[in-house]
Amino acid sequence: MQKEIKAVVITPKDYDESKDYPVVCLLHGYSGNYSDWIAKAPQLESYADQYDMIIVNPDGNFGSWYWDSPEVESSKYETYVGKELVEFLGQKYSTVKSRDGRAIIGLSMGGHGALFLAFRHQDTFGAAGSLSGGVDIGPFPENWEMKKHLGTKRENPERWEEYSVMCQINRLIPNKLKLIISCGTENFFYEVNVRLHEKLAYNNIPHTFITGPGGHTWDYWRDAVPYQLLFFHNYFASAN
After folding, report:
1. Which of 105, 103, 122, 123 is nearest to 114 (CA)?
2. Comparing C-alpha atoms, which of 32, 172, 190, 20 is closest to residue 89?
3. Fewer CB within 10 A of the terminal residue: the chain, N end or C end?
4. Cα dihedral across residues 207, 126, 110, 68: positive or negative
5. pTM, entire model
6. How many whole angstroms separate alpha carbon 209 and alpha carbon 29?
7. Which positions ≥6 away from 103 have C-beta within 8 Å?
């Protein structure tokens, strides 16, 4: 995109360049930015120490949905996060240079983005998670600037299917991608998350699905994120 994009990079306090660390990309939601997670969940620093991992919070430009937009030429956030950022981190930091040492997760818009990117870049990421993810964009044709990036759903129905996580499941091979999905029962995305869980199960794609009380709030995301980071930590340990 020919521009500088900020990101927060959290390294373990005992970071040692002679050692290769797994990386977790943690995406923000709609209207957020790269600083959201560390500002609202500062305990991420302790999780990086506890799980001996690098945690990266990239910027998704307020409402990119982490797509390479077919409508906005300057919005190529699938390429940025799924390819360029990973390559940059591998050059600047001491990281595991394979999918076995990379995971991606996000909240809301970022939950959709994390699964969308992981499903489409399985050679890059070995595990993925979603917190309250907008995992099916179809029911929300007028919301969150999506039509700015995709055109209207009425005029571009096939595109709206193609750019939704729900329609990327056919890319998956059982057990290739480790998946964890969390959503509170009071969340307006709860029903689409249940449908994603059911569709994954129908297609014999193993995954962890966690529900419980909670809305579309930072209280829920702060409580839920350590379980996903532990899930990734266990994946990294078993893969290496």
Report:
1. 105
2. 20
3. C
4. negative
5. 0.97
6. 20
7. 22, 23, 24, 25, 125, 126, 127, 128, 129, 178, 232, 235, 236
